[in-house]
Specification:
The chain has 145 residues and is an alpha+beta fold. It is built from six helices and five strands. Strand 3 and strand 4 form a beta hairpin.
């Protein structure tokens, strides 16, 4: 059961963040650029994978990635366009500690990408096992390392 204090905090946060005005200032803007469900899923996942650190850096790099994916992230994956943008030989950083080679793995096969999100005191462990064309990703919750 949710305490009254927590309920009020969640309602206040929702009124601040669940608005059209918030979208352009947040990485959530990238999935909103697409209409097709699979495009939204792919844009949302790759943006989420980069959503740590400075918000301006996240938005800048996610914008670059969305420009690379073009009008359809699904086609970007299905047609393997990512191969020209992300090489297995390129271990330079694409975003912070995620290399170009890591993004190649994300788009091609998903392995060994494992991401931990902290949500409301719980950890969400996401493993993409079969590449982005196999969305939705499998997610399981765990309570420790």
């Amino acid at each position: 059961m949710i305490s009254l204090e927590l309920k009020e905090l969640l309602i206040e946060a929702a009124s601040r963040y669940e608005t059209a005005d918030f979208i352009p200032k947040d990485p959530v803007q990238f999935p909103h650029r697409y209409k097709m469900k699979r495009d939204i899923e792919i844009a949302g996942l790759v943006t989420a994978l980069m959503s740590f650190g400075n918000r301006k850096q996240i938005i800048g790099k996610a914008d670059k990635l969305c420009l690379m994916m073009g009008k359809s992230p699904l086609e970007y994956v299905k047609e393997r366009v990512f191969e020209k943008d992300f090489s297995y030989d390129d271990n330079s950083s694409f975003y912070r500690m995620i290399s170009h080679a890591n993004f190649r793995d994300i788009f091609e096969k998903g392995c060994p990408v494992k991401v931990v999100f902290a949500v409301a005191g719980f950890f969400l462990f996401v493993t993409v096992r079969q590449g982005l064309s196999a969305l939705p990703a499998r997610a399981t919750a765990f309570s420790g390392w």
